[in-house]
Structure formats: structure tokens, C-alpha cells
Amino acid sequence: MSLIPENRLAELSGDDVKRYSRHLILPEVGWEGQQRLKAAKVLIVGTGGLGAPLALYLAAAGVGTLGLVDFDTVEASNLQRQIIHSTRDIDRPKVASARDRIRGINPDIKVITHNTRLSSANALEILRNYDVVADGTDNFPTRYLVNDACVLLGIPTVYGSIYQFEGQASVFYAKKGPCYRCLYPAPPPPGLVPSCGEGGVLGVLPGIIGCIQANEVIKLIVDADEHEGRSLIGRLLLFDAWQLKFRELALDKEPACPICGEQPTIHDLVDYEEFCGLKREEAEVPVKAISARDLKARLDAGDRIQLIDVREPHERAIFQFEGAKAIPFGQLIRRKEEFNPEIDAVFICKIGQRSIYAIRALRDAGYTGRMFNLKDGSNAWARDVDPSLPQY
Amino acid sequence: MSVTIQIPSALRAFTERKSEIAVEAKTVGEAITALTNLYPDIRPHLFEEEGKLRSFINVYVAGKNVRNAGGVEAAIPDGETLTLVPAIAGGAPLGVRL
After folding, report:
1. Is residue B97 pLDDT above 50, yes or no?
2. Which of A7, A96, A199, B79 is the most exposed place for a label (fewest CB within 10 A)?
3. The pTM is what?
4. Domain A6-281: assigned CATH number
5. Set of chain A residues whose Cβ sits within 8 Å of the Cβ of B94
């Protein structure tokens, strides 16, 4: 059955005919397909790198109702890829900036903004009003939350995900194929995979993956599978922007999947931070922090301190941390004998996140010396101690 | 028998940024062990402490997931490619949630 049943088809106006003529003359979309698009309600979770092209193209294509969920505000570092926001939008809520841009492209679209964090408490309430959910989130707890809520509500999720040069896309629709949990039963523990905030991302990459998601959203709405098309249900598309390579992998529904399998054990939303190990992390022994100014004062006073820079070589090329020993994050455990547990060690990364994971990993590996995290990383050093150095 | 292992972006920090590594192996287990011998820092990202493949990494051979098709015992035909497909989330530092 189509996602938009006959009795919901929307009337097209004379202006619609002009605006959407290139769709109307495609036999596979046509009048009825455009009616379905106009009637459709699509929720875009996240108005960042993936959400930007999703929202722009779905608005242009005439999806009648677009919901946007995001709690964040626009920052300068977003503009390299989040093309729905402009320089003048810095510090504005992302959903407000995105709504204005959508209205500029297509004033006929109804935009519903949810300026909130999606959580187990509000997800079902928000998602149940939509026909399709496009997942443009940037973290594991929200991905599992969106997946589970969609499976429980019987809604398809159009999935996209990016890291550095690589993207993944699929359509998870438990009624017809696998869900995200079939592919990844459990997330990586925090700290194992660096985030884009630390690992970086090629700006065009979310544009490409987000466009593929927009394409799949439109295909679901116009029922492409019934018109000689083929959705990404049961297929995982991998894209490597650097090698310019697309690959397709088969995705099977997992009979033992705890939410969409033969004997599901999950019947309601759970605590996704706990599931993703973030609660455990809070319960761990806290990592001691030192501010950039305090570190400078201790160094100036002649304290003996081992400075350990866990950034990657290409980051050190942006600036060298004077007097620091460079040991990239991935080599720390193997090289822990190079540290002297008698002397305080300060760990340095870009924003003070990897350094926390570095300290935890060394502690777990049995290192007994005193360890400090440089709070807010090398960026804080550049901001508070030596402004001649770049924040990146 | 030569097998090409495709390394995803998320794991290239452990392979000197190389995207493909050729190893000699007959099975998935042999191929991944050969990879971890070449690049020991990648090991904790692929295996749990008890030696089981991690559940957030899928291993594909010839376009098929080996999880329910032999796992580490699955045979790899000569000249075939093994693709590691980790879960990626993108965006914000872990712990910062939408």
C-alpha cells in the first residue's frame, strides 16, 4: 500500500502546475505523484550537513509539510557544509534559519519547527504525525532513538551518515526490510570512533548523501517501487568521496533483531544514552582538567610536566604544540612505556575530547601516573594563551 | 591467496591513512588477523577483548555480510575484496546529542 493513500491526495492548483511541470511530465511521477508529494508530511531530524540538502530539495520538490527538529544554533564552522544557513544566521536557531530559507524557495510549504532535543519522552509524539522520517542526526543515541520510534510507529526512515570522506545511505522500513538495528545491533563505545568535530568532514560529502536521502524520500512518497523503480530498502549504499567510488551491499533483515525480528523484546523506547554507554561514562572516575592559563602558569613556574599531544600529524601541521611529545591517539596504549608515571602528564587534543578518552584508555591499561586533560584542547591554548596560533 | 581489505575512513587513522591493504588469507579471520599484525593499533577497533568481532563493524565479502554466513570462518575467494563497514554517526562529539 502506498504511504499516501488515495483519500489523502491533494488538489494541485494552477500555480502548482507551473512550478512542478518538470515532475508532471515524468510519467513515473506525474499528476498523482505530485498530489502525493503535496499531501506528504516528512520529518527531517537534524538541520545540519545532511538536513540542509534534504530540506532544500524536498521543499523545491513540493513536499507539502516539512517538519524540522534541531535544538542547535548556527555556528561559523557549520557554514562549510550546512548550506541552508547563511553567514547572517550565525547564533540563530537552526530551525528558524532553515524555515526562512525554505519559505524563500517555496512559500507554499508548511514548515513545522521543533526547536528541541529529540528524546525518548517526545519522539513518538513528534514522529507519529509524519509519513516519512529522514535521519540527518549526528550521534548514535539519536540514531537508535529514531530507528526504534519509526519501527514502533511503522514509518520508514531514510538513513544517511557521514564521516570524513565516507557516507552511508539506506532506507530502513521494518514492514518491508531491515532496520538500523539489523545492521548494527550495538553502537561503538564512546571514544572509539572520533566525531566529525575532531575527525573532520569534507564539506560536499553531506551534500551528496543528503541529496541521495532526498531522492529516496521522494521515491517512497511517489511509490517508485510500483513504477519500475527501486528504493534503498534492503540495500546499503557506501560512498567514498576521495576515491569517488559507490558500492552497494546487501542488507538482510535479522531474524533475531530485538525490535523488528521474529520475537521482538523491545516494545517501547528505552534510555538511548545508557544503551550507547554514555551513562556509564558519567559514572566513571572523573578526569582531572587543567585550563590553558593554568598550564601556562605551571610551565612558566618551571614545573616538570610531560605534555602529550594526541592529535594526528596533519593537525600538528596546523600548529605544533611547543615542548609536547606527539603520540597520535591510536598509538597511546602501545607506547605507554614512554611516559614517566612520576611526573604529571597533560594530554592535548583539539577540543579536549579525545584527550579525555586517551586518559581513560591509559588508566584502563594500568598507567598509574597523574594525568590531566587540557580543557578545550589546543583551541583553548590558542584562544587564551597564544592568540598568534590558529583555532581550527 | 591475495585478498584486498578496504579500510573505511573511520579506521584509516590506524593504517597510515591507507584505504586498501593487500594481505594473504583464505578466510575472513585470517585476513583480519593479518591486518592487525600489520597495524596493531587497529585491533581493539575490530575485536572485543574475548576475540569476537565487534558488533558495530560489519564485514562484507563479495557484497554479502558474513555475520550470518560463517563469520570469521567464512572463506574468501582468491582476488576477492573484504570490506569493513563500521557504524558512523558524523557530526558532534559523542555525548553531545540532538
Report:
1. no
2. A7
3. 0.84
4. 3.40.50.720
5. 139-140, 190-191, 193, 195, 278, 353
Task: Mark yes or no for CB contact B90/A70 under 8 Å.
Answer: no
Helix (H, G, I), strand (E, B) or coil at A233: strand
Q: How far apart are CA A243 and CA A26, in angstroms?
A: 33
Cα-only R_g, chain A:
24
Q: How far apart are CA B14 and CA A332, in angstroms?
A: 12
Domain ranges for chain A: 6-281, 286-384
Among residues A98, A101, A107, A108, the alpha carbon closest in space to that of A134 is found at A98
CB contact under 8 A, A195 and B68: no
- How do strand B81-86 and strand B57-61 relate by DSSP bridges? antiparallel
Q: Which has more confidence, B67 or A54? A: A54
Cell representation of residue A197: 568535530
CB-CB: which of B19, B45, B95 is closest to A192? B45
What is the predicted pLDDT for the residue at B92?
Answer: 44
CATH class of the domain whose range is A286-384: alpha beta
Mark whether A196 is an active-site residue.
Answer: yes
Instruction: Return the pLDDT at A238.
Output: 96
Mean pLDDT of chain A: 93
How many residues are listed for chain A in this entry? 392
Picking from A107, A95, A128, A94, the residue whose alpha carbon sits closest to that of residue A62 is A107
Chain A residues close to B40, C-beta within 8 Å: 334
Lowest-confidence pick of A116-130, A131-145, A345-359, B37-51: B37-51
Yes or no: say if A215 and A229 are a contact pair by the CB < 8 Å rule.
no
- Mind listing the pLDDT tens digit for each residue in A163-202? 889 999 999 999 999 999 999 998 887 766 555 566 788 9
Contacts of B41 in chain A (CB under 8 A): 330-331, 334
Given the candidates 3.10.20.30, 2.40.50.140, 3.30.470.20, 3.30.43.10, the CATH classification of the domain at B2-86 is 3.10.20.30
Q: In A241-353, which residue ranges form alpha helices assigned H by DSSP? A: 272-275, 278-283, 292-300, 313-316
What are the residue ranges spanned by the domains of chain B? 2-86
A150, A196, A211, A276: which one is catalytic? Answer: A196
CA distances from A60 to A27, A54, A69, A192 (A): 19, 10, 19, 39
Beta bridge partners of residue A172, listed in sequence order: A157
